[in-house]
Amino acid sequence: MKNCRLYLSLFVICFFHTYIYSQSTEELKKKKQAIEKEISYTNQLLEKVKKDKKQSVNYLKVLQKQIRNQNNLLVTLDNEFKSIDRQITKINEKIFKTKTDIENEEKRLEKLKAEYAKMIYNLYVKKTGRNDLVFIVSAKSFNQAYKRLAYLKQYTKFRQNQTFKIQQAKEVLKLKGESLLKEEALLLNASVDKNKVITAKKDELNLLNKIQTEKQEISKKLIKSEKKIKKELKEKEKFRDLLDEEIRQVIEEEIKKLRQEGKDMEYALTPEAKLLSSEFVANKGNLPWPLSTGIIVNYFGKQKHEVFSGVETFNNGIDIATDKEAIIRAVFDGVISRIFFIKGVGKAILINHGEYFTVYSGVKDVLVKVNDKILAKEKIGIVDTKYPEDKTELHFEIWKNYEKMDPSKWLYNAY
Q1: Which of 64, 113, 264, 411 would you label with 73, given CA atoms 20 to 30 Å apart?
Q2: Which residues contact 176 (CB under 8 A, 6 or more apart)?
Q3: How many structural domains is the chain composed of?
Q4: Domain membership of residue 239 as a residue range
Q5: Does 173 map to a domain?
């Protein structure tokens, strides 16, 4: 029983140590894979829009996103390196302790063997020319005979116990030896992982420097077109205000209509929608993206211009760069409230989710009609591509009545 407990304890220690090492690096590896996937997709977008990259602010926006991704990857690699380094330190400490335990156990075994040899020798000396049965029956009294019998039994038991201790010490040494081999294998794997991370970090730093140099070169050329770019910015602000005004008008009409019907702003969800969530707000941070593939190139709120540091713009939502002919999806169950057109923006779709509204603009083809009831992830349109900059972007907004919300806080893993 004691043996079983001992082996089990040693096994648990070895397993737990291996599990902790794998668990501590697994999360970082998953994060790294997610960033690498986004970097790969961003590279694809850069390839598609690079034709006019020397004069394209659009290309610069995607390039800026790539720089952000590269920096995130470097931070992740640095954390992975530190994690592996900590693991190596712990493994080395464990190896040192195991080696010390083995040395102590070997000394204990030698001592047990020496004691056993001495005991056998003494037994041999005392037993020479003596028979145990004669030794007992030659006693002068019954009491002395009983004591001699007890002595022989105790001596035999002690010898057996000593034999068991020696065997147990050998088993412990064997297990500790196996544990040491596993720890050394872990150390080797961790060292290999560490070298891989070091190599990857060097490669990513070189790539980041290359991207930053490219950004600086493009920025210098774009600065020469300052008047043209600032004029385009004013146009975009005008289109943004038109879209903002149209959305407010639609929301106001929706609220008035509901009040006239004597209804509150709570939207009666379908049974299918209730499986996703009983309320739109309950899915905050978990809403599906309005596109199956894409990267956010413009975030909500005040944004510094990619070229002119003194210029700021305000974004009512987020802009997602994607592939040509990308399908737009509803992020939640709702009703199509309005389909409208804004010059310079294109078609836009507004969906009612009760007191919440989602807006999808920069639409080429609309696949739904006003008053259609739609479900989350249902196709509602196709993203438009702007020429000559070859820009395919969806502008996405979330409103709570008249208040603009930050969509990146609502979409799954958007920050």
Answers
A1: 411
A2: 10, 98, 101, 102, 105
A3: 2
A4: 232-409
A5: yes
